[in-house]
Amino acid sequence: MNNLNIRKNKRGLMTLFIYAIINNNDKKWGDKMKYKLCLFDFDYTLADATMPITECFKHTFSTMELEGYDRDKTIKTIGMTLDDAFKALTGIEDEVKIKELVDIYREKSDEITVENTVLFEDTLDTLKKLKEDNIKVGIVSSRMGTRIIKILNHLDCYNYIDYVIGYENVSTHKPDPEGLNTAIEYFNCDKKEVLYIGDSYIDAKAAESAGIDFVAVTTGTTSKEEFEKYNHIKIAERLSKLIDVI
Question: pTM value?
Answer without folding.
Answer: 0.86
